[in-house]
């Protein structure tokens, strides 16, 4: 598997996931990085199959138009997303680039359409649901702390500790981590009841 974390503008991360044998690729959260993404795709001679958005906020979708104008790819988003996506997905769905499996985990809370992507059961692209040392905010339209609690504690933290965590923003002390490390060190993920978590987040 070819995997690239890209950050050329602002603090947004974009990702390229590709099968080295077939050269099929997916881009996750094009953000403001379309130029660098295009350069990597061409340098590596990859065929872009999907442009996947973890949620609909414009800082994550900003490069979609440029990529779609250059490559014959399909856009992918959660079925509740307001993005005009070619493919709408839901929890448990799996997409493939070549033989690389990308599993959708529905993780609302930051937005109603938030998803995380588990790549070959090894790498978790978390968008704005989980950051390194933090979590997504719930005070924007559609945010919901109860949903975020369920997404974090009853979905993401139940994954294998060795799964690597790759967030949507460069907000932490390093660009990626693991589920096990975040369990130990992320103050947001310390054991709390739902009631305590909502009070801790201080948002509905």
Write the layout of secondary structure elements.
Layout (H helix, E strand, L loop, with lengths): L1 E5 L7 E5 L5 E5 L5 H10 L3 E6 L5 H4 L2 H7 L3 E5 L8 E3 L4 E4 L2 E7 L8 E5 L3 E5 L2 E2 L2 E2 L9 H10 L9 E4 L9 E2 H7 L8 H8 L3
Parallel strand pairs: 3-4, 4-5, 5-6, 10-13
Antiparallel strand pairs: 1-2, 2-3, 7-8, 8-9, 9-10, 11-12, 13-14
Structure description:
The protein is an alpha/beta fold and 204 residues long. The chain has one domain: Ribonuclease Z/Hydroxyacylglutathione hydrolase-like (Metallo-beta-lactamase, Chain A). The chain is built from six helices and 14 strands. A six-stranded mixed β-sheet has the order 1-2-3-4-5-6, with helices on one face. It has a six-stranded mixed β-sheet with strand order 7-8-9-10-13-14. A two-stranded antiparallel ribbon has the order 11-12. A hairpin with a 2-residue loop joins β11 and β12. α1 runs parallel beside α3. The mean pLDDT is 96.
Question: Which properties best describe this structure?
Answer:
14 strands, alpha/beta, Metallo-beta-lactamase, Chain A, six-stranded mixed sheet, 204 residues
Corresponding CATH architecture: 4-Layer Sandwich
Task: Count structural domains.
Answer: 1
Alpha carbon gap, first and last residue? 40 Å
Q: Which percent range describes the beta-strand content? A: 25-35%
């Amino acid at each position: 598997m070819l995997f690239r974390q890209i950050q050329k503008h602002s603090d947004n991360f974009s990702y390229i996931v590709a099968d080295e044998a077939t050269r099929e690729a997916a881009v996750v959260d094009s953000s403001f990085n379309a130029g660098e993404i295009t350069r990597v795709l061409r340098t590596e001679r990859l065929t872009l199959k999907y442009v996947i958005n973890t949620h609909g906020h414009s800082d994550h979708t900003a490069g979609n138009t440029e990529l779609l104008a250059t490559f014959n790819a399909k856009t992918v988003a959660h079925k509740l997303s307001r993005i005009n996506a070619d493919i709408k997905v839901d929890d448990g769905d799996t997409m493939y680039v070549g033989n690389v499996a990308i599993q959708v985990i529905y993780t609302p809370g930051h937005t109603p359409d938030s998803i995380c992507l588990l790549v070959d059961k090894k790498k978790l692209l978390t968008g704005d649901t989980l950051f390194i040392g933090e979590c997504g905010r719930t005070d924007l339209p559609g945010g919901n702390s109860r949903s975020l609690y369920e997404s974090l504690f009853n979905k993401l933290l139940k994954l294998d500790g060795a799964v690597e965590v790759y967030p949507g923003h460069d907000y932490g002390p390093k660009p990626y981590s693991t589920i096990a490390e975040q369990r130990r060190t992320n103050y947001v993920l310390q054991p709390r009841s739902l009631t305590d978590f909502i009070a801790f987040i201080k948002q509905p």
